[in-house]
Amino acid sequence: MRNCRKRAGDILHASALFVLLGLGVIPSPHADVVTPQVPAARGEQCVEPVEIMRRDHFEFITHQRDLTVHQGIRTPRYSLAGCINCHATKTAAGEYLPVNAQGEFCETCHTYAAVKIDCFSCHATVPTSKISQSP
Amino acid sequence: MNSIRFHPSRSSAAFWSACGIAAVFLLIGLAAAHHMETAGHWVTGMTNRVVWGMPHVFAVFLIVSASGALNVASLASVFGRSDYKPLSRLSGLLAIGLLVGGLSVLVLDLGRPDRLIVAMTHYNFRSIFAWNIFLYTGFLGIVAVYLWMMFEPRMNRFVGGVGGVAFVWRLILTTGTGSIFGFLVARDTFYSALLAPLFIAMSLAFGTAMTLLLGELVLRLKGETMSEDLVRKLARLLGYFVLSVAFFVMVSHLTNLYAASRQNVSLFLLLSGGLYTFLFWIGQIVLGTLVPAVLLLGRRLNSSGPILLSAGLVVMGGLVQLYVLIIGGQAFPMSIVSGFSESSALFDGVVASYRSSLPEWGLGIGGFALAVLIFLVGTRVLPFLPAQSPSQ
Amino acid sequence: MSRPDSHSAAPPRRAFFTQAGAGVALLALAPGVRLVELALARSDDEPVTSANRWGLLIDTDKCQSGCTECVSACNEEHGIVGHGRPETDAQWIRKVDLKDDQTGHELSIPVLCQHCEEPPCVDVCPTGASFRRDDGIVLVDKHICIGCRYCMMACPFQARSFIHEDLSGQLTHAPRGKGVVESCTLCVHRIDKGEQPACVEACHKEGHHALVFGDLKDSDSELATLNSTVATRELRPELALKTSVRYTSF
Lengths: 135, 392, 250
Fold this sequence. Notes:
The structure holds three protein chains of three kinds.
Chain A: H1 2-23, H2 50-71, H3 80-87, H4 105-113
Chain B: E1 6-7, H1 13-39, H2 54-69, H3 71-77, H4 88-109, H5 116-121, H6 128-151, H7 159-182, H8 195-221, H9 228-258, H10 263-272, H11 275-297, H12 304-331, E2 340-344, H13 358-381, E3 385-386
Antiparallel strand pairs in B: 1-3
Helix pairs in contact in B: 1-13, 2-4, 2-7, 2-8, 2-12, 2-13, 3-4, 3-7, 4-6, 4-8, 4-13, 6-7, 7-8, 8-9, 8-12, 9-10, 9-11, 9-12, 10-11, 11-12
Chain C: H1 12-29, H2 35-39, E1 54-59, H3 69-78, E2 93-100, E3 106-112, H4 120-124, E4 130-132, E5 138-140, H5 150-154, E6 161-162, E7 181-182, H6 188-191, H7 198-206, E8 211-215, H8 222-229, E9 232-233, E10 245-248
Helix pairs in contact in C: 3-7
């Protein structure tokens, strides 16, 4: 009786590990999971640490957009234009590539995560403003 | 009450063919909506001057007739006319189907239908549109409860109460629908307190016509017909409702014609509006009002043929009336500086041209098809249809 | 956002000449631009308040029939291009030619969003996307606009446009896209930096000076002074909209 229960417990434990490994919750030492190849941004660092940005960047963007549209607050820190200024890459000829084009910054992660972005049906995908600062 | 038996539709070739035809038109409607959303609204006839077109004509018709379709059930539950009881269940189902059909046309025509969740979570309560979202969804819930009261014998005693709530809700809903246009202070062609009662009268007319047509259709698919007594009673009601619509139209035009500042609006629709004038007199008045009124109220009716024809004419007349109201009302130039003639690159001062497009018709008819499909399939799933009593 | 530089590190004489030169240049730049207005430009992280109310005064005597500089400037400022479909192409400002039905007198006026204090478009918007900012500018929050076009039905001036097709190449300061409604923003992106709307600047540059921009609540401003000394009117005054844009000379 006891052995049966222990056996059942072992099987349950093993299957749980198997499932969790498959889901990627527990990092597996030999994972050959494909990760997105994100082009590097210009400048020293982002306005927030990378881990925070990966999880919460949309929170900053959606909060900022309401402040900008309704209250006229245009601080550059969380502005979408500010993101694009650093994250848009340039060709050798010096032309900007759209951040939502194939292989560019926003598109790589969003295609990987299968999350559709709504921003660029309206917002400029390259720095266009005369006063935009490219570091 | 226990003497009335109800059955579902029978699964016959005719029945499934009817459903199939409706499904095909529904698919066409969905394809049209998809095309409009991906390409953008430039593929339609709607412009910056005429922003609402054929889809809205169909949508408003469906929504208005949904409200009126429930009237048959109200006659039984609220006004104690038990001779209409055989049609109560059917009336509730039809109301739900028509409303869902109309709402889906409205939603699919939006510039950003993917933002429906935004519309359901952000409300500006100064807008009658925002109120209407609650009125429409609430209506669906109330009618569902109403049907439950009718179906479940232990709940039958609540039918009158819930029916009363549904009746009042309907009046508020239809007032809200009419007020979408009636509250437009900027436009002489719309701003009027008369639109609320006009829409209530329209709902009674269109809803009764749709009940006659679709009720007869679903029973014929089962190899039966609607009871002659009920058909005759509904026919008489329809005749009176159609005349009441004409009354409100007439009063509204007479009031406009009396004012030097507003007579242009009515003169346009009644005399100089080209297509709109033609549609008004021939489509709305002659074919949509006078002919049905004569047929329905004239002599003693013996067969259902003229009655169903009249119902069809009322439906067509209703669509025409909404076309003249909604599209004609936008095409008529809005005066920005009174006392001056205006002209500009954005077609100020001229009657805006509007040519309806295939995607718009596709979407509108698709909404109709969805309503019919919901209705037909509903009658198959649950016992909505009154059984023929032996004396018929 | 630019602020007047402090020249405290430079030698006093040079600083004096620099500032005097800047002052003269500013005065020569455009009538109606005052040094005080620039100095009081709100900083980026302060919310707008109702202490200001931005407005326009349009002198129809100075507005030339046939001139469309304000329209061209607006289109260029916001990246508005035509698609060869005038009935559905966006237009934030347009010239309307008027002719008095009784007297035959002709004139031409620009018509744009009037930035009403009681905007019908704000009343009817189901989601609240159409709203009035505290400083009087009526805007569309394009993030929550669902494209129902009810505001276009409600606007007494036909000032709003719906975007009927996919757009590309938008400018950073003027996001606009398919399926959403838009209208004149009174160049809110310029005002927030302390500048003038593009149409006003273009009209000055053209030499007509028909458009005056300013703060209606600042009684010292040229706009408020003009409004209180000459006869001005709203469009469609019977609607009692209390517009920020007023017209004179007709």
